[in-house]
Design goal:
A: 235 residues; mainly alpha; B: 271 residues; alpha/beta; Alpha-Beta Plaits; 4-stranded antiparallel β-sheet; 13 strands; globular
Chain lengths: 235, 271
């Protein structure tokens, strides 16, 4: 597993994130307190629509492999379930440093506003929920197709939610429960922010949002294990 | 002794039949599936190991369908396949450590020390040569504790010395193996039961002893076929001929042929 944590890739990636996010943080500190809440949305969009997808795609090597490699692993470890679990654990571990890093950043930002630190829970959920989606997409049989569909899903889905919500706000319409649930699934942090900034706009309590996210995340993980054990491979 | 049972086994990829209505019932220790390139050998092995479901028909190994009981199949069998594409940076030493934990010590010693896998212990799998990849795969498939070894073209890319060491180990330990090859001599050396495929269809099954053909020999050629011989077919540097032992011995002494042997599974390679 050591070979999958590539310092040449990860160190510049973390330094770049640190530079961008700290610049934004010191910029926010210069803004009047009552306007900081609006600045926080910039950070949320940066994380959910750009940084999360970039980091997740860099971690796809943990789960996207040639069939030959997967069959070799199955034969060596003597089981399908072992390998499915190993892939899951491997990508979950890969996401931990990133999750800790972003949690610290979001904590710093949220401390400057009246926003509850519950947003860190939404950050963690958004990372691991999309991780679940990414590993599901890893079952697409072509490696290139996997990377393309993952890139599209990981970038486009959270961005789409932000566009939909902006339009609803513009037309002064509330998000109905179904759309609120979808919104909590595909961009948990942003939906939570709107729930706090515009009370009553999201018609689902943010604790329900957490529950929906946890259930969806578990569904993704379980579905991955079931589908992996049924997938066909020709060597 | 393992039992492999297939009934009307078919596998289609799109409209192409990789296997078409193959049926057999085998009780043997070392089963060799032979056939030319594209004959369906690897597809049959993939179904046997549980990687593919058949499009039609059934295949059972020791009474169960491996593609329906994949966990059991993966526990009881190990597989090595031809020309693997490794794309994860794992070192050979890591594979060795894993296999050593659940493997046969003598077997691991054979691969690590005598064959010399330790010489490229620090190399990542994707950086290995084709022969080195084959050795690492065989170390995993043969040495990990498993009842049946499924080996797809195990000796391709290996030098003759390593072929000798590995083949002898399989025979000495009386391992249960299912292997594929397109080399008749390799098949006859290792196998005690043969399944011959051509274009996805079963052409012949049986033992070498079942192959009839009095006075029919395989002759290893030196340049051209001697004109005195009556040729049934010619496959590369080997001709299948009707002749007598004495006549062939004379041709051998005159250095007009390189050798000869009784007709074997090669007869099923020709139309």
């Amino acid at each position: 597993m050591k070979g999958l944590f590539i310092p040449k890739l990860l160190i510049p990636l973390f330094l770049l994130m640190l530079f961008i996010e700290l610049s934004l943080y010191y910029f926010v500190l210069g803004v009047p307190v009552n306007e900081r809440m609006n600045m926080l949305i910039m950070l949320i969009l940066l994380i959910t629509c750009f940084l999360n997808p970039v980091y997740m795609i860099s971690g796809m090597a943990h789960v996207v492999r040639s069939w030959d490699m997967t069959v070799f692993e199955i034969s060596m470890f003597g089981g399908w379930l072992n390998i499915a679990i190993a892939k899951l654990v491997s990508i979950i571990i890969y996401m931990i440093p990133y999750t800790v890093f972003q949690s610290v950043i979001v904590y710093l930002f949220s401390s400057t506003t009246s926003l509850n630190h519950l947003i860190i829970a939404y950050l963690v959920l958004s990372i691991y929920l999309y991780t679940g989606l990414a590993i599901l997409l890893s079952l697409v049989k072509s490696r290139i197709a996997t990377l393309l569909t993952s890139a599209v899903a990981l970038f486009i889905a959270p961005l789409s939610i932000s566009i939909i919500i902006s339009n609803y706000i513009m037309f002064n319409t509330r998000l109905d429960p179904a759309l609120s649930a979808i919104s909590y699934i595909f961009n948990p942090m942003l939906t939570y922010w709107y729930d706090i900034a515009y009370p009553g706009f999201v018609q689902l309590n943010h604790f329900d949002g957490i529950l929906i996210d946890i259930i969806t995340m578990l569904c993704f993980y379980i579905l991955f294990m079931l589908l992996f054990r049924r997938s066909e491979m020709k060597v | 002794m393992m039992n492999i049972y297939a009934e009307n086994l078919s596998k289609y990829f799109g409209r192409v039949a990789a296997l078409a209505d193959v049926s057999f019932n085998i009780d043997a220790k070392r089963v060799v599936i032979i056939g030319q390139n594209g004959s369906g050998k690897s597809t049959l092995l993939s179904i046997l190991y549980g990687l593919l479901h058949p499009s039609k028909g059934v295949l059972k190994i020791n009474g169960y369908e491996p593609y329906r009981m994949r966990e059991k199949a993966a526990r009881e069998m190990t597989i090595a396949f031809e020309r693997p594409r490794f794309d994860v940076n794992v070192r050979v030493r890591d594979v060795y450590k894993i296999v050593r934990e659940n493997g046969d010590g003598d077997c691991i010693e054979l691969f690590w020390e005598r064959i010399g896998v330790k010489n490229f212990a620090e190399t990542f799998l994707p950086d290995l040569s084709s022969g080195q990849k084959q050795l690492v795969q065989l170390m995993q498939a043969i040495c990990r504790d498993s009842r049946i070894k499924v080996l797809d073209e195990p000796f391709s890319h290996l030098d003759v010395k390593n072929v000798e060491l590995i083949g002898e180990y399989i025979l000495e330990r009386d391992l249960e193996v299912v292997l594929t090859t397109h080399l008749p001599e390799e098949a006859e050396w290792i196998g005690d039961y043969f399944v011959m495929l051509r274009e996805g269809k079963l052409v012949w099954q049986g033992r070498v002893e079942d192959i009839g053909g009095e006075d029919i020999y395989e002759v290893y050629l030196r340049y051209r076929v001697p004109s005195s011989l009556s040729v049934y077919s010619k496959l590369g540097y080997v001709a299948i001929v009707r002749s007598s032992y004495e006549e062939l011995l004379e041709l051998l002494n005159e250095n007009r042929i390189r050798g000869f042997k009784k007709l074997g599974v090669r007869r099923y390679f020709s139309d």
